Amino acid sequence: MKKDSTLTDESFFASGLAGTNWESGSDNDVEGQLAVDVYQTNKDVVIKAPIAGVDPENIDIDVTNESVSIRGERFDEKEVDQEGYHFQECYWGAFARTVMLPVECDSDKADAAFKNGILTIRVPKFVKVKSKKIKVKPS
Fold first, then answer.
1. CA distance linking residue 68 with residue 123, whole number of Å
2. Structure pTM?
3. Which of 133, 132, 124, 129 is nearest to 63 (CA)?
4. How far apart are the C-alpha atoms of 15 and 32, rounded to whole Å?
5. Rounded-to-integer distance, Cα 114 and Cα 87, Å
6. CA-CA-CA-CA torsion for 116, 22, 5, 13, nearest 10 degrees?
7. What percent of the chain has pLDDT over 70?
8. Who contacts 4 (Cβ-Cβ below 8 Å, separation ≥6)?
9. What is the pLDDT of residue 6?
């Protein structure tokens, strides 16, 4: 069953987000939360995040065996003053997200790729070593 993560108009206004000033450098500096998809393959835990408009040089990723933290900043190249906007729904400024990994992973072998505005992080799962009984041979 797929989880419903829809933010309705009612929940949006009740959350207080409707009145948030998303402009970077405002009096109410808010760090945006990055949307992510997290899934497992047989070998890896994969995290995907759409972060179009961000230079890969402005993305900081910290990986441990238990979590992945992503930080960055999206800069707005202002073409008009604030008064010139009819709508301003895009988030500009700093963003961050920490994801707890569902299984213990090998952070030393993690890698990241950025293609078409999608950040993909792959963290290999630790290979579980099964216990094996051995017999002692006489010398």
1. 9
2. 0.69
3. 124
4. 14
5. 29
6. -150
7. 78
8. none
9. 45
Q: Give 29's pLDDT tier (boundaries 50, 70, 90).
A: low
pLDDT score for 124: 97
Question: Tokens standing for 125?
Answer: 């799962």
Give the separation between CA 120 and CA 37, rounded to whole angstroms: 10
DSSP 24: T
Helix (H) or strand (E) holding 121: strand 118-124
Residue range 65-108, pLDDT digits in tens: 999 999 999 888 778 888 888 887 778 889 999 999 999 999 99
Burial class (CB in 10 A: 0-12, 13-18, 19+), 71: middle
What share of the chain has pLDDT > 90, as a percent?
A: 45
Nearest CA among 20, 37, 42, 40 for reference residue 29: 20
Question: Domains (ranges, CATH) in the chain?
Answer: 21-78+87-124 (2.60.40.790)
CA–CA gap between residue 74 and residue 92 (Å, rounded): 5
Which DSSP symbol is given to 56? Answer: G
